[in-house]
Amino acid sequence: MDSEIIEKIVRQVLEELAGGSDGQAAPVSMGQQLTNVNKPPAVPATARVAMLTALEKYEIKEFPIPALGDDDILVKVEGCGICGTDAHEFKRDPFGLIPVVLGHEGTGEIVRMGANVRKDTAGKDLYVGAKIVTSMIMKDDPDITMYDLNKQNVGAADVYGLLADDDVHLNGWFADYLVVRGGSTVFNVSELDLYSRILIEPAAVLVHAVERAKTTGILRFNSRVAVQGCGPIGLLCIAVLRTMGVQNITAVDGERKRLDFAVQMGAAATVNFKDHQGLGALAGAVMETFGGHSADFAFQCTGSPAAHSNIYKFIRKGGGLCELGFFMDGGDAVINPHFDLCAKEITLVGSWVYTLRDYATTFDFLKGAKRIGLPLERLISDTFSLDQINEAHRANLAMSGLKIAIINT
User: Fold this and answer.
1) Phi–psi pair at 185, nearest 5 degrees
2) Bond prior to 202 in cis (omega within 30° of 0)
3) In terms of Cα–Cα distance, which of 70, 60, 188 is closest to 123?
4) Distance between CA 76 and CA 112 in Å, rounded?
């Protein structure tokens, strides 16, 4: 069958689909049809950003979308979670970034690519229409690689959403569009739904923490594990532990709705510290959930110095502790080195953000958590539009929901 016959058949089918050849609809050639299918999405000349211009004050500003370099990517933002770091910036600007476009838990769709863009950081194809997330912007550090085996975490690199304002302006995910510059780490995550993609960045923090905990040799499938603090980080910690097979998990928090959701994420028991007067009573309540035993391992997921001081009392002799709650300086914690560390021979590890390797592992965690029925998507309890970003941050500070996100429609 030659090309003319094929063309004729295709034209006839298209005419019939369009309403026939009786003048009701103009016929469309196969070439025109292919052109329409492959046509890239329209991109406006300008983009809106939510710029933090003063403490507790975002303003919606509009900037031209710049021409892309050969290694750059333009992403249409679909959504971005609000993180505790965003809350700190909103309240105190500890990094001195104002004016700044925040948002680092974001995801979106590629709408334009530079001539040199071919593959993502893990070697997957990139293309217009692919759904992506970003991790870090390289600083020519040879220790930051995809398979660095935890030698280098993201703290040594820049992150979109924590960049000082410049002449590009489209520097964070609280925006309509983001310019991903050459040298950035990018992952094609088109197989994941929107809410899962928004949770990648915070979930990577917990994947890294659990990997750090495993280096102690104490955390095992049958370990009794206490997770202190059931905000989004603590809840994701429980989900990571449950997905990897740990079943005997006790969640400790002071909010009933968070503790209830901790059970849905895999906790076997909960303890509300507001129901127990004194540290001894609280430690006893935790022990009761473990059949009269102290925890083999604990994760401290709050930024509270008092919480850090208390958690040693939950842990057995020879047990382990992973401290991951202090992304920022929250103040000094008071412990007794003899009773809390030496006499109990506690193994303590710290965890801070993640590595690129952890980022890739997180994709598998999210898929695995869904396979065993954990309702991760329900962790994002409240959504707001970009225009409502001040309201969204106030809701986040008031802890009125679990995880709050900005969703572009």
Assistant:
1) -95, 130
2) no
3) 188
4) 9
What does the alpha-carbon distance between residue 123 and residue 187 come to, in Å, rounded to a whole number? 9
Query: What are 44's two structure tokens?
Result: 């406006």
DSSP notation for 206-226:
HHHHHHHHHTTT---TT-EEE
The one-letter amino acid code at 47 reads A
| For residue 44, cis peptide bond before it (omega within 30 degrees of 0) | no
Q: Measured at the alpha carbon of residue 192, what is the angle toward residues 367 and 157, in degrees to the nearest 5?
A: 95
What is the number of residues in the chain? 409
Selection from 263, 309, 305 nearest residue 282 by Cα: 309
Structural domain spans, the chain: 3-36, 46-198+376-407, 204-350
What confidence tens digit (pLDDT) does each residue in 290-324 have? 999 999 999 999 999 999 999 999 999 999 999 99
Lowest mean pLDDT among 8-12, 72-76, 294-298: 8-12
Domain 204-350 has CATH 3.90.1710.10: no
Residue 158 is predicted with a pLDDT of 86
**C-alpha angle 228/392/260, rounded to 5°?**
35
Predicted pLDDT at 143 = 59
CA distance 198 to 83: 11
Say how far apart CA 171 and CA 164 lie, in whole Å: 8
d(C-alpha 372, C-alpha 363), whole Å: 15
Question: Contact, 231 vs 299, CB < 8 A?
Answer: no
| CATH number listed for the domain at residues 46-198+376-407 | 3.90.180.10
Give the pLDDT score at 233: 97
* 16-54 residue pLDDT tens: 444 433 333 344 344 444 444 456 778 999 999 999 999
**CA–CA distance, 386 with 219 (Å, rounded to integer):** 41
State the Cα–Cα distance between residues 197 and 265, nearest whole angstrom.
18
